[in-house]
Amino acid sequence: MFGDYSLAELGSILVMQGFAGLILFSVFLLMALGLAIIFGQMGVINMAHGEFMILGAYMTYLCSHLFETHFPSLYSGYFFFAMAIAFVAAGALGLLVEWLLIRHLYARPLDTLLATWGLSLIMQQAFRSTFGAREVGVELPQWMMGRSRSPARSRCRSTACSSWA
């Protein structure tokens, strides 16, 4: 039933799937909390909430390719730059949408629902037209994969304290 997997391999797979489930749960929780806070504070039902999150993901993708092609020596640190760009891009678009669309629809929750649903469809099609229908991904830097040593350990290995490592 489980193929040629040993009990240790099955345990590792179970742990990996558990962490993947926790990661997915945390994303869904953040999305739900964001929707609840926006509705509670502004009275706006934002159906384009996920698309703003997707905008941040695509900004990370673009930063990854920018660093990979133009700044390969700095590629290991692109992730911090991409996080800042993603927050700024999503926040700037959110401010623009609030100024152009949502501020005219306060106290009309059904209208905000329809307007942001239309915005969601427009943003989805814009992303699909720009990046294609298939998902895109970024390559993680080596330090995020656990493949690099800390400077203290590598310094320790190159000096007389190699018996400590």
Write structural notes for this entry.
It is a single chain. Residues 153-165 have low confidence and may be disordered. By secondary structure, the chain is mainly α. It has helices at 7-42, 49-70, 78-100, 109-131, 151-158. Helix 2 packs antiparallel against helix 3 and helix 2 packs parallel to helix 4.
Summarize the structure.
Helices cover 68% and strands 0% of the residues. It is an all-alpha fold and 165 residues long.
Features:
globular; 165 residues; 68% helix; mainly alpha
The major β-sheet equals: none
Please report which band the strand proportion falls in: under 5%, 5-15%, 15-25%, 25-35%, 35-45% or over 45%: under 5%
The N- to C-terminal Cα distance equals: 42 Å
Unreliable stretches, pLDDT < 50, 5 or more residues? 153-165
The helix/strand order is HHHHH
What's the total number of strands?
0
Shape: globular
Q: How would you classify the helix and strand content by structural class? A: mainly alpha
Spell out the blueprint of helices and strands.
Elements: H1 7-42, H2 49-70, H3 78-100, H4 109-131, H5 151-158
Helix pairs in contact: 2-3, 2-4
